[in-house]
Amino acid sequence: MKTYVILFIFLQCLLQDLCSASDSFPRGVHIAFVGPSSIAISFYTRSDAPSALPWVLIAEQNYTGTTTKSVSRYHHDVIVSDLKAGESYEYEVGVGGSSVNGFSYSPIDISSSNFKVAFVGDMGVNNSAATISALMKKHSDYSWIHHVGDISYADDASVKIEPSSGSGYDEVYDLFQDSLQDITSSTPYMVSPGNHDVTCRVTSDLGCPKQQRNFSAFRQRWRMPSIESGASTVEHHNVWYSYRVGNVHFVSIDTESDFPNAPTKPTTKIGGGAGGGFGDQLSWLKSDLQAANSDPTIDYIVAMGHRVFYSSSLTDWPLNAVKHVSSAFEPIFKDFNVDLYICGHKHFYERGSPAYNNKPVERGLVQIVNGAAGCNEGVQGEGKGKGHHLIVKGNYEDTGYGELEVREGEMVWRYVLSEGGGVDDEVVIKSKRS
User: Which SUPFAM superfamilies match (predicted)?
Assistant: First the structure.
């Protein structure tokens, strides 16, 4: 029923010309975890309404939030607290007098050790219809969805390989968030930054206004628990953070900036925009993982990021990016017993054997490359890189997404084909704490 309500409202908006550049109609509604009983409800509008605060009406309570402005969009976040697991909440969002309702959310029990999570990587508005359709049918089975970087591919509009809207960066990003609203308005959608999330042009900052540089759209359009997890004291940091559900600690890293020899630096000119300067990521990561590793109630640690440590295809930009990313993060993951690293960047699926420093080991980190949800560039063929010997399962033809099921005594990873829903790979991930 909710699907038809939202579709009717969106069509009504279009027919009445309420979605023009001058309107304040809420669009791209999505939610995210920010605390044990709290969520951020976020959306964007296209109008200038500086005197009006964004608001959410839920459980007969009215919450107000904050607004940030990009070039021609206003991005709104409202934090809703004191939600009870197992209850179903209907809610309405708005700015001033413009509002939309028909959304619902059922909080999960974050103390539960039985849940499923979906993972997508490298997903844009093109070639992703099968994945989005599959998630549309199954998203109620998942406690949340995590996108491991390269979100919308709006920056490809600058090189004319983004044909969906024919206009510009914000228009493509709008289309992406609008197309997911039926999913993201009821199922939390968490995000990690990728190389396509740095600036408004895939090649450089040239021609990009300040409000679209240095991960600005990524930070403005999403609201992640960076403050709540001690990663930052600044609102809309978003680039690294952690959260816990049940007996699993999840940590999201930024493989693009803020570590030695990062692909994106404040001085980057060519092959991507300048970026970074958000803080000491590695010191925070060590502290965060040390606390998780020392907690006897945590059975698994799962890390999410964009770039790979090893794969069958190691050609990358900038040169030696794979080496620098793995040098920065893999030793920390080893020191604090991270069990699983889920990444993307390569547009295929690969599962590696437990490994460290490009060598198989008995109780090493399991890396999953999950970058085939669908984007402008299509599914990538198998390579023959130096990490090829570590790959135990690969798929270089089909779009798909990951599914992580946590249940009593074990954690199971699956790769699900977008077309047909078949399980192409399945493995039990063993905890280093057992």
Answer: Metallo-dependent phosphatases, Purple acid phosphatase, N-terminal domain
d(CA 199, CA 78) in angstroms, rounded, equals: 25
In a domain, 434, yes or no: no
Q: Nearest Cα to 431, choosing from 355, 342, 339?
A: 339
Of 16-20, 152-156, 258-262, 333-337, the range with the lowest mean pLDDT is 16-20
pLDDT exceeds 50 at position 269: yes
Q: Is residue 24 part of a domain?
A: yes
Helix (H) or strand (E) holding 285: helix 281-294
Residue where a domain stops, chosen among 107, 141, 162: 107
Contact 126, 167 (CB under 8 A): no
Residue 66 belongs to domain with CATH number: 2.60.40.380
Mean pLDDT over 253-270 rounds to 94
Q: What is the residue range of 38's domain?
A: 1-107
The two structure tokens encoding residue 174: 């709008």
Element (H, E) at 233: none
DSSP annotation string for 369-406: EE--SB-TT-PPPP---TTGGGEEEEESS--EEEEEEE
- Tokens representing 425? 């790979």
Residue 134 and residue 100 share a domain: no
Write down the pLDDT at residue 239: 97
Taking 90 as the threshold, does the pLDDT of residue 249 lie above it?
yes
Beta-sheet pairing, 366-370 with 359-360: unpaired
Nearest alpha carbon to residue 43 among 62, 17, 66: 66
Least reliable range by pLDDT among 65-74, 151-160, 285-294, 361-370:
151-160
How many structural domains are present in the chain? 2
Q: Which amino acid belongs to residue 200?
A: C
Can you give the pLDDT at residue 49?
Answer: 58
pTM over 0.90? The answer is yes
Q: 19 and 97: one domain? A: yes
Task: Give dist(CA 37, CA 107) in Å, integer.
Answer: 8
Residues in the chain: 434
pLDDT exceeds cutoff 80 at 222: yes
Q: Quote the tokens at residue 249.
A: 């600690």
Residues 182 and 167 in one domain: yes
